[in-house]
Write a structure and sequence with these properties.
Blueprint: H1 22-33, H2 36-48, H3 52-80, H4 86-92, H5 95-130, H6 140-149, H7 152-169, H8 172-199, H9 204-212, H10 221-233, H11 241-246, H12 255-283, H13 292-305, H14 309-343, H15 347-366, E1 377-378, E2 381-382, H16 383-410, H17 414-418, H18 422-447
Antiparallel strand pairs: 1-2
Helix pairs in contact: 1-8, 1-12, 1-14, 2-12, 3-4, 3-10, 3-12, 3-16, 3-18, 4-5, 5-7, 5-14, 5-15, 5-16, 6-13, 7-8, 7-14, 7-15, 8-12, 8-14, 9-12, 10-18, 13-14, 14-15, 16-18
Amino acid sequence: MQNQTSGKSSDQGGSATERFSSSGFILTAIGSAVGLGNMWKFPYITGKYGGAAFFLLFIICLLVVGLPVLLAELAIGRGGRGNASTSFIRLSKSKYWGGFGFLSIFGAFMILSFYSVVAGWTIHYAIISFSNVLFQDADYTHRFTSFAASGMPVLWQVAVMAITGAVVAKGVSGGIEKFNKILIPGMLVLLIVLIVRSVTLPGAMAGVEFFLKPDFSKLTTESVLVALGHAFFSLSLGMGTMLTYGSYVERRQSLGQAAAAVGAGDLLYALIAGLIIFPTSFAFGIEPSQGAGLVFMALPAAFSAMPLGGVFGGLFFILLAIAALTSTVSLLEVPVAYAMDKWRLSRNKAALWTTVLCCIVGVPSALSVGGAFSGFTIAGKSFFDFVDFVASNIILPVGGLIVTIFTGYVWKKAGEEAGLTNGMFKLWMFVIRYIAPVLVILIFLYSSGIISGGEYGK
């Protein structure tokens, strides 16, 4: 067994001895938080619900519900020093709380099964953009639907899972941390290159104005619910990732400062994403409300019209691929940590079997977006959309609610683990006990469509 503060991974049953370095943890947590949804969802909802006014509302929601719940997850993880189920058991001395924790593990696994499919799309598009194959046919909608209808998405999903599994198998410091220390700075460089290119396009300022001009008349009850939902989901809350990562954090690491850094990183990424998407869309007359369709079916037309469009298009899809892969790694670590603790498997075996199982479960999702499973529906949704809906809009909010209840009412040493001053602890506990649960319930009611339509997810 390794010394607890060595930062090295143990390959023998369980993950209790694995540790992040301080900087590595923050980069890894930011990598988990930033995802594909921020690239096309956040800019659109910001423009739709008031621009800079909504951005300010989002920051408030991030402070009120996002960061307190994030801090709670990190504290549970570090306090329990186990996976997303074991940590609850150790801190509560009750196996029943372990069952609640397992729900988030199941949610992370199911999200990974379809999220890896979309990650595969991004890698495929990066390759065909750099090779200029993407721009040989101007009908980009047909190109995407033809690709989705083929068996290729399955192969790319397997490729993504192979990369993800290989990283996780190398351990916390030697795999996950090292991976993020390379990719997150690389992502920052790509963001800078692409934002410079976007805002210097003719007509780009109209997109910047649409994104950031405050329009307080658009702030409604619905916009508050949307901001709450995105603040919650953009931080990877409720899916066990931050709780699992928290179990690898050194005692000397300030969890409050770490949570603030993760929130700031997520916010900065969302802002820059908007300053890439909207200027590009407006410069080429593209409707910026198409979600995933904007990325795979509309923006290629913009890149084709740019000088060196193949290069910038390739860089854009590499940016998406990095955002996706840093998230798939964090998602896979959740069930892998559980398998290591539950069945005393080595990390290599746990990573291998979890990766293979996720690939199998992901096949129907890969083939349901125009492929062989496209005619199969559950509750009127494709297999891909159904799994997305259940995992993202039901399991995640319930997982977040469990965290607030456990931290606020069950675990008596939460403040000691969080390391807050007396005044900050009282404020945090007030939010966790009385405000966050209500807001998370509202997120659940809204995202599940009970009180209004709307779906969220990473």
